Amino acid sequence: MTVFNHPEFQHEQVHFCQDKASGLNAIIAIHNTRLGPALGGCRMYPYNNDETALTDVLKLSRSMTYKAAMAGLAYGGGKAVIIGDPSTDKNEAMLQAMGHFIEQLNGHYITAEDVGTSVSDLLTIAKRTHYVAGISDKLTSTGSPRSGDPSPATAYGVFVGIKVAVEQRLGYGHLAGLKVSIQGLGKVGYQLAVLLHDAGVKLYVSDLNVQHLQKAVTELDATPLSPQQLLQTQTDIFAPCAMGGILDESLIEQLPVVIIAGSANNQLATERIGELLHQRGILYAPDFVINAGGLIDIAHELGIHNPKQVHRQLDNIGHTLTEIFKCSQQQNCPTHSIACSISEERIHQVMDAA
Ligand code: NAD
After folding, report:
1. What is residue 143's predicted lDDT score, i.e. its pLDDT?
2. pTM of the predicted model, to two decimals?
3. Dihedral angle computed from the Cα positions of residues 223, 226, 227 and 233, in that order, rounded to the nearest 10 degrees
4. DSSP one-letter string for 190-246
5. Which of 79, 90, 163, 202 is catalytic?
């Protein structure tokens, strides 16, 4: 396995962490801390091999740098992955060992939840480190209590993003009557489904977990589909809310939608896919812009949590996307490229000022 020659390696630090007693094998990648300490979730996933885990953490941490810069947050990009199946391999000692490794980084990396980890896992990690976000109980903007879980904020940000994408691509000021296909009904996907259902959307859903699927059928009158069927079903919007890399050439050649807007990180299998989506007239909401809600939420938790301010910043995801869509149209340039340029410019401005 190569690290320094890895095509995704442009990082400040990469840490390989092992605790044989608990079975922990993990990688922490700190991409860029020019804007502040690296903030990003800890994923637990049964990677096929170490190389795949490394590639994932390098890509995920890089997109956290872009996400924080785009959302105007004083944080850098980092991410951690634990190699293992969260349903069978996770244990208290492993999570505490992870906390120990994070603590040793002295705050250069702050962790949070991600795929395969939950608030309760993060509370275990927090027994050994101060550098955990997304665990403190807080209030919503309407004053109701809620847990530290950032997923509702992510789902709300994606919902806001879908509304502006619909306005841009279809010219509608509402979602009622539209069809949306959602891949993945986990922490974010399900809450997005609820928001869309309440807005009058007809849902088509797929999840590998049958219980998640059944809940959406019973509670949201969603149409359940196999993963393959979902990608062949004609809807207005495709919302990828499962794993990354889903948008590849073969899929987008036949994907029967006009908008792609979902929470999954790193949706584009390669940079070129952004160009192909643009050529095909599919409006793509760049993932690191539309899914920034959770990061905004935990960044505020680390400072002074003002629910109304968080809500304003989540709504701002819509304004940012509108700007990106307009620039994309004016410059005839893919939305993904526009979003990357804006983020890079922000990071360079801070570097130049330092
Ligand atoms: P999760 O693990 O709670 O949910 C993922 C769901 O996708 C699971 O129900 C799983 O069964 C399902 N799934 C996996 N592969 C699938 C497939 N091929 N077809 C259909 N369903 C499949 O994760 P989450 O927290 O909801 O995150 C979803 C995505 O959003 C991830 O890519 C994550 O990195 C990203 N994201 C999450 C947050 C957050 O606040 N949780 C923030 C930003 C980005």
Report:
1. 81
2. 0.95
3. -50
4. HHHHHHHHHTTPEEEEE-SSHHHHHHHHHHH-PEE--HHHHHHS--SEEEE-S-S--
5. 79
79 carries an active-site annotation: yes
pLDDT in tens, 141-190: 788 888 889 999 999 999 999 999 999 999 999 999 999 999 999 999 99
Pocket test residue of 44, 73, 208, 209 for ligand 1, highest count of atoms within 8 A of CB: 208
Residues having CB closer than 6 A to ligand 1 are 114-115, 150-151, 154, 183-189, 206-209, 212, 227, 241-244, 263-265, 291, 294
Q: How many other C-beta atoms can be found within 10 angstroms of the C-beta atom of residue 127?
A: 12
Task: Please count the residues of the chain.
Answer: 354
Residue 91 tokens read as: 């244990």
Atom of ligand 1 nearest to the CA of 243: 32
Q: How many CA atoms lie within 13 A of 317 on its CB side?
A: 34
Indicate which residue's Cα is closest to atom 14 of ligand 1.
242
Query: What are residue 268's DSSP bridge partners?
Result: 247
Of 75, 69, 260, nearest in space to 162 by CA: 260
Q: Using most ligand atoms within 8 A of CB, pick from 70, 119, 187 the residue to mutate for ligand 1.
A: 187
Nearest-angstrom CA–CA distance, 152 and 58: 26
